[in-house]
Amino acid sequence: MASKKSVVPFGPQHPVLPEPIHLDLVLDDEKVVEAIPSIGFVHRGLESLVKKKDFKEMQYVVERTCGICSFMHGMTYCETIEHIMDVEVPVRGRYLRTIWCEMSRLHSHMLWLGLLADAFGFESLFYQCWRMREQILDMFEASTGGRVIFSVNAPGGVLKDMPSDMLHAFVEKLDGFETELHKIADIFLNDYTVLTRLKGVGILTPEEAHDLGAAGPMLRASGIARDTRKLGYAAYGDLDFDIITSDDCDSFARCDVRIREMYQSIQLIKQAVDKIPEGDIAVPVKGNPEGEYFMRVEQPRGEAIYYAKGNGTKFLERIRIRTPTFANIPALLKTLKGCQLSDVPLLILTIDPCISCTER
Amino acid sequence: MADTGCEIIPITTGEFLMKVMEMKNDHYRLMQAHAVSVENGYELSYTFGKDYEWVSLRLVIDENEEIPSITNVYQAAFLYENEMAELFGVKIRMISVDYQDKLYRIDDETPMKKL
Fold this sequence. Notes:
The complex is a heterodimer of chains A (about 350) and B (about 120). Chain A is α+β, with helices and mostly antiparallel strands and about 350 residues long. Chain A is built from 12 helices and 8 strands. Chain A has a single domain (about 5-360), classed as Cytochrome-c3 Hydrogenase, chain B (Orthogonal Bundle). Chain A has helices at about 60, 70-85, 90-120, 125-145, 165-190, 190-200, 205-210, 215-220, 250-275, 325-335, 345-350, 355-360; strands at about 5-10, 20-30, 30-40, 155, 155-160, 290-300, 300-310, 315-320. In chain A, the strands form 3 sheets. Chain A has a 3-stranded antiparallel beta sheet. In chain A, strands 6-7-8 form a 3-stranded antiparallel beta sheet. A two-stranded antiparallel sheet of chain A has the order 4-5. Chain A is globular. With about 120 residues, chain B is α/β, with parallel strands linked by helices. Chain B is built from 2 helices and 6 strands, in the order E-H-E-E-E-E-H-E. Chain B has helices spanning about 15-25, 80-90, and strands at about 5-10, 30-40, 40-50, 55-60, 65-70, 90-95. In chain B, the strands form 2 sheets. In chain B, strands 1-4-3-2 form a 4-stranded mixed beta sheet, with helices on one face. Chain B has a two-stranded parallel sheet with strand order 5-6. In chain B, strand 5, helix 2 and strand 6 (about 90-95) form a beta-alpha-beta unit. Chain B is globular and about 40 Å long.
């Protein structure tokens, strides 16, 4: 006898969701057979502000796209404008951007680990992760003056420098952070209860990840070695690193990839501190942008794409922001098909969703 | 490896679906799609990537021209197409899943369409 299907509304308000997204879950008993997403609760129309804010002011708008990747949004926007206007950022400026990018990745992944621990009910682990994340936010505050919105990017470079003693103090702090990370990582990667919740849950095959346009750790945890940092924007072209992947294709693999990326971020910051040259941090930018450019960077959640089109006036004709969560929603829907209802919150978290970014 | 930038390939409405099929058959993934409002119409960009290579198909259409959805070829296009339809008023037929202008909860109709 065919079982009767039921529809359970999930969200937009749910204890596991930091931001609102709604899913209609079609269930056969407790098994999800289909998930239909509904977004739009926090659409702010940021892209439409190009009509009111000039291209220099837009930098402050785009970095408000996300409270976690705000530095990277600002930087990607500036690099897009710099390409259109053919502006060469000084090497020291590019290194500073790289250091702040990797600090962003560290605190974003740490935030995600905490949320994951919270999702499977490991409250003390959640607190430890967020306590550790504070150390990175303190470094941001010391170097930029901000903990969420930094406003240190501008077309042409960066607005603040980091003196040598500050950079070396950061490296020392990161040594301590790394020691603590070993302890936290051991729990995520070896604890029996954690493994029970993550192993084999939410399989996304490499073919599915590619076909559905997945990005970032979601893609790399399905065995596809693609990391936009390898294209060499900012100072990544001067740094040595391998792309971190896993062939397990499940929720555990996504956790494992993010943890290993944190160790890599620490190493990248140390490399950048060793190699950063003295010199200017920005060049003056004259005139208005005319032309168009597509730019992509590797944010903590995955590849972000910016498109800008200028018409020679101080107001851009169009700015388009494609965030990684936007790209990962189809992959999320695929992982939800066939899962148990109790795994839905966990699977939503494994894409590291940022709904404010997605809706802009 | 330096990013060589995204190549923009102009196409016509007539060859649109065929070019998208070619991309699919060549194992390109859909990276993004967006609209730009231009005088009396739209400039649409569908961006595809393979490894680190990326290209954008550029389609310029009239305001009232209707284009087919590519969701039958690239399932993941449904959010991009719904966004283009709702924010810009681009007429796209047979989107699977079509939110009927309810993707975003906004009061204004097609707020990013050029008046």
